[in-house]
Amino acid sequence: MKKTILGLALCGLIAMPSATIAEELTGTLKKVNDTGSITLGHRESSIPYSYYDNQQNVIGYSHEVSLKIVEGIEKKLGKKIDVKLMPITSQNRIPLMRNGTIDLECGSTTHNKSRAQEAGFTNTIFIINIRMITDKDSGISSFDDLKDKVVITTAGTTSERILRNMNAEKNMNMRIQAAKDHGDAFMMLSDNRGIAYVMDDSLLYGERAKSPNPSRWVVTGESQDQEAYACMMRKDDPQFKALADEVIVELSKSGEMEEIYNKWFTQPIPPRNANLEFPLSDSMRELFKNPTDTPYQ
């Protein structure tokens, strides 16, 4: 009888490790392991972060970071996973994350305290300033010059919020036109449906670079805010966040993140082989030396 009880006890001990392993994965990592796939949300025209090339392939600085995180997931799980791509916009990216449609989004998404109430964020992958782009002959050089003018931005962004607050606080009477995406906003500017397009400076340089006549446009105006871009994930998923953060730290400390930066911001890029001519800032150098997930506001 004692041998039987001991045998059962040993069987129970032997069975425990597999149960423990099953319990080790939580949140997104468990979902990816169970389904064998991950869905990446991506932007369609956030040059040079996440956008389509001429063959409709998703490319860009942030997209490369997302694929590096996928490699980190595969290493942890010990198997290849299927990568599915889902186009998103500024307005639907958080709802799609919250309802489980996408698992990770690396584009041009600002990490701030307000958004952190709805979603989780990795370590910062980029630091930007909010400025504007306008025709070099427009006579616009300062945000004060936008009073009583039609001004373009992208819907659902912090730039839209800043413009609307500026209107209310300074009585500027700007007529704000919010486009669906960055490409649409710049097209409106090109068609003279507004005097300036207000957005993150690096995105403005991206739109300028891909335009038929880059010399027509100038990025100008005093910075209205500095923001941190990060990859977005579901809120309260510490296991997945720890893995993604570790990947970004390794990329930053090894110098690979700076190589990825130079590829997309200081060299010719698709689709027109234009160069953004956007050298690494002191803020970005400091970020690569000391990665952080702290938002600016």
Automatic annotation (TrEMBL):
Q: SUPFAM superfamilies given for it?
A: Periplasmic binding protein-like II (SSF53850)
Per UniProt, what is one Pfam family of this protein? SBP_bac_3
Keywords, alphabetical: Signal, Transport
What range(s) does the Solute-binding protein family 3/N-terminal domain occupy? 37-268
On whether Transferase is a keyword of this UniProt record, the answer is no
| Record-linked CDD domains | PBP2_GltI_DEBP
What's the name of the protein? Answer: Glutamate/aspartate ABC transporter substrate-binding protein
